[in-house]
Write a structure and sequence with these properties.
Length: about 180
């Protein structure tokens, strides 16, 4: 009888050993997906436009006309906001990718720069307005000539890349700004 009991116990242990890999699998059968590198999202969930920016645009248009800069007479008075972290703003013509406006030109601005200094925002808008000139689509020739002229007349910095942004402005734009910085 004892012998029989031992045999049953042995059989039970063997069965348990055989079942072990099924019951306990330390390695997951599927390879775990690698943690993806976070991509900077350009999605913009903020407001589509900003009254203050639109007012600044109207004032910048006035300024350009006072200086007799040959900007277009058909510029959308509403600046559209987007989530860009690579461009402060862009100027599109009606034939461009989004025909949402009746006007010949419209300006989009990154919502991430709404907190920039007013000087920086106005220099960005003046930069974009120069793109509405005939032959003003790139940063050479006419654009460069008038950018220099407007900069000299107004004190804004209108260049191809850098404008009147502060270090804080840039940090906010690139998403590296830390609130309550000690400096
Ligand atoms: Zn430009």
């Amino acid at each position: 009888m004892v012998n029989m009991g031992l045999k049953i116990l042995l059989l039970f242990v063997i069965v348990l050993i055989c079942l072990f890999p099924i019951l306990y699998d330390p390695k997951p059968s599927k390879p775990q997906p690698r943690p993806r590198q976070k991509r900077q999202s350009y999605a913009w969930k903020g407001p589509k436009t900003d009254e203050r920016i639109n007012r600044m645009l109207a004032e910048c248009i006035e300024l350009m006309k006072e200086l007799e800069v040959p900007i277009s007479d058909s510029i959308c008075p509403i600046v559209r906001l987007n989530g860009s972290r690579s461009r402060f703003a862009s100027c599109y013509d009606r034939g461009g990718r989004k025909a949402y406006t009746e006007y010949d030109f419209y300006i989009e601005m990154s919502g991430h720069i709404l907190q920039n200094t007013e000087k920086s925002l106005r220099s960005v808008l003046l930069h974009e307005l120069l793109h509405t000139m005939p032959e003003g689509y790139d940063h050479r020739g006419e654009w460069k000539k008038w950018a220099k002229y407007v900069s000299e007349k107004t004190g804004y910095t209108i260049k191809r890349c850098e404008g009147d942004e502060t270090e804080e402005d840039l940090a906010r734009f690139f998403g590296t700004y830390v609130e309550n910085q000690s400096e």
